[in-house]
Design a protein that fits this description.
The protein is mainly β. It has a single domain, classed as 6 Propeller (Neuraminidase), CATH 2.120.10.30. 10% of the residues lie in helices and 36% in strands. It has two helices and 24 strands. The strands form six sheets. A four-stranded antiparallel β-sheet has the order 1-24-23-22, with no helix packed on it. Strand 20 and strand 21 form a beta hairpin. Helix 1 packs antiparallel against helix 2.
Length: 304
């Protein structure tokens, strides 16, 4: 249930690249690309492209839209997101006040995520022509490039801030993990896997994948890439998974009922519970507040 709309435009959507374009017919384009994602047989070349197209189209709206919100584990519970009207990163308070722009450049800066203490933000930017992973202080200073030239996306820091898990969409695609300074980049999977998130204790990684020539399904594995297990198996698109703060639940978005809604499940895929029930909206990119009492998500705005 929507408790409060904390920002009504400019901040929205799953951990996917987003774009605002008033000239696009949103419903038609989303339906078409979802159909393609469900039925495509040539995923080797087309699925990565369709993922990016879906990312753009899913947030089309007559107002500015926003990138996946992320809540820091710092005391004041800041929220970070990308405003797709200018592709810049913003930070705001947990109640939607104090919106502050922290990047200001000609690049597209996407998929921001806080460190557990709120002092750092890891994100992806196309500053050099393709998306690479960067890290900066939470006030926008001290920007440091961590990866180079491989279309790296969806970065997420471990709770001890020592590791970053992310996905790569070109070359040898899959889920990767590296030290938070960019060293020791290790490939964990070798398929079209996206939206990785690492568990609070650092032992597990949950992610979405199209590896079975179907829609997006959710998988879990050990943080060293072993013991991969498929958690969902339905006709819908299941994506943007995140762990609960205590590591016992996975929250995610799915259109299994015909509309993108927010769900939770156990780490073994059992006890799937639907949390939102809306029509003609796209509820995505859910994540928990640090104490687990609130859930923040996007639906043409940021809700909590």
């Amino acid at each position: 249930m929507k408790v409060a709309e904390i920002f009504n435009k400019g901040l929205s959507l799953p951990r996917l690249a987003t774009i605002s374009n008033n000239e696009l017919d949103t419903d038609y384009n989303i339906s078409y690309y979802l159909f393609m994602l469900r039925n495509i047989a040539f995923k080797t070349y087309l699925i990565p492209l369709l993922i990016i197209l879906l990312s753009f189209l899913i947030s089309c709206n007559t107002e500015d839209s926003v990138e996946p919100p992320n809540i820091s584990n710092s005391f004041n519970g800041k929220i970070v997101c990308t405003n797709t009207s200018n592709d810049e990163i913003y930070v705001m308070n947990g109640d939607g006040t104090g919106l502050t722009r922290i990047t200001n450049n000609s690049n597209a800066d996407y998929w921001p995520s806080f460190s557990s203490d709120g002092s750092k933000i890891v994100f992806s930017s196309n500053a050099l022509g393709v998306c690479d992973i960067y890290i900066m202080n939470s006030n926008g200073t001290g920007i440091t490039q961590l990866t180079t030239g491989s279309f790296d996306m969806y970065p997420s820091l471990s709770s001890d801030n020592q590791k970053i898990v992310y996905s790569r969409a070109t070359g040898i695609s899959g889920i990767y993990i590296m030290d938070s300074d960019g060293n020791n980049q290790i490939q964990l999977t070798s398929d079209f896997d996206y939206d990785p998130s690492i568990s609070p204790d650092g032992s597990k990684i949950v992610f979405a994948s199209t590896r079975d020539l179907s829609n997006f399904e959710i998988y879990i594995m050990d943080s060293d890439g072993t013991d991969e297990t498929r958690l969902t198996n339905d006709s819908g698109i299941d994506h943007t998974p995140n762990f609960s703060p205590d590591g016992t639940k996975i929250i995610f978005s799915s259109d299994r009922d015909g509309n993108f809604e927010i769900y939770t499940m156990n780490l073994d895929g059992s006890e799937v519970t639907q949390l939102t029930n809306t029509t003609n909206t796209l509820n995505g990119a859910p994540c928990y507040s640090p104490d687990g009492s609130k859930i923040i998500y996007n639906t043409y705005g940021v809700y909590i």
